[in-house]
Amino acid sequence: MLFTADHDEARRALQKFIAAEINPHVDEWEDAGIFPAHELFKKLGSLGFLGLNKPVDYGGQGLDYSYALMMAEELGAIRCGAIPMAIGVQTDMATPALARFGSDEVRKEFLAPAIAGDYVACIGVSEPGAGSDVASIKTAARSDGDDYVINGGKMWITNGAQADFICLLANTSDGPVHRNKSLICVPMKTKGVQVARKLDKMGMRSSDTAQIFFDDVRVPKRNRIGAEGEGFTYQMMQFQEERLWAAAACLKAHEVIIDETIEYTRNRKAFGRSILDNQVVHFKLAEMQTEVELLRALTYRAAEALIAGEDVTRLATMAKLKAGRLGRELTDACLQYWGGMGFMNETPVSRAYRDTRLASIGGGADEVMLTILCKMMGTLPGLAKRGDA
Ligand SMILES: Cc1cc2nc3c(=O)[nH]c(=O)nc-3n(C[C@H](O)[C@H](O)[C@H](O)COP(=O)(O)OP(=O)(O)OC[C@H]3O[C@@H](n4cnc5c(N)ncnc54)[C@H](O)[C@@H]3O)c2cc1C
After folding, report:
1. Does this model's pTM top 0.90?
2. Ligand 1 contact, 203 CB (< 6 A)
3. Considering 30, 109, 230, 242, which one is annotated as catalytic?
4. Quick one: which of 138, 177, 189, 337 has the fewest CB in 10 Å?
5. Is 233-377 assigned to CATH 1.20.140.10?
């Protein structure tokens, strides 16, 4: 991946923004269990950061994916996982399909304000009864003249308590499960949309995660993204950007934790020397740094393939799997070297340990990543159906 002076300039602007507008508030937002999404997104949107690789016609910067990658990586400087995730949902999880397949009308109505930071977006795939097995979702959008009437419910929806619209995956017919779904933009203020509860989580505390019900929610069919029945395919494509984002966003965050662990263990003494002065400790940290660099190489390779227009399912799946596994190993190892302080909520390593745990579950669990890879390797019966979250 070749980053240019333009990337560096954008990177510096983002670093400045994070240092001035985000990090000073993170502790307060984590305690509150929510952050001011509209306020923050408006500022990010004004700087162009919510549409780096989105079409210029809708207010985006029209740049290639390398800029989105740079941004995802740089968000790792934020002192929690929740705010990067909320931003990532807006840019790389809830809007890629809309940007690529949405009609001019639907993009004007939903994409343009999401890029400007006037709308907060969320993505509604998972349901109480269907997470890994996306094909089995039950939320239905029944055709009624020029409208859909939606009934069902979504679970664990990031940004769900503050969102202005949800990019909703729903069944629009009774046909085969991979051909009966559509992605539909549903304004959250529509009658019948109910944010039932904001969920209490072990990590990602400042990100709001909601359970949402849809009770006879009527939306015009023009709110559908692309062709009817293609929603499953669009979502599987959209997942590739989500998974690449998840891998990129953990790189810098991991390095920060390693650096802080070096600092802490250098200053902490036991048995007449610093904790860091034990070979088992500094060897482990060197190994973790090497693993982060390997993950970076894989993630960049996948990003290059994406820019070249190739199908990145295999590489993005591997990167997401590795990101989840490495996050658990790295934060666990680092926390151990912080000893009792590692167990305290006040230390960054403890927050990282809790936040990072999600990477092996959200956006498709590790086992789902392995299933996709096995299908692609031909070690599981049947071709890769790309049918798993
Ligand atoms: C904080 C948070 C934020 C989220 N944000 C969103 C969001 O914005 N939008 C959205 O749509 N969803 C969101 N999710 C949901 C997330 O994507 C799902 O939780 C995830 O896909 C797993 O689904 P599940 O929880 O139903 O697990 P299940 O499908 O019930 O699976 C449970 C476990 O079983 C194992 N498993 C599953 N399948 C297999 C298999 N084939 N072989 C072996 N083991 C298997 C895995 O270990 C998995 O973790 C979020 C979740 C969390 C926790």
Report:
1. yes
2. no
3. 242
4. 189
5. yes
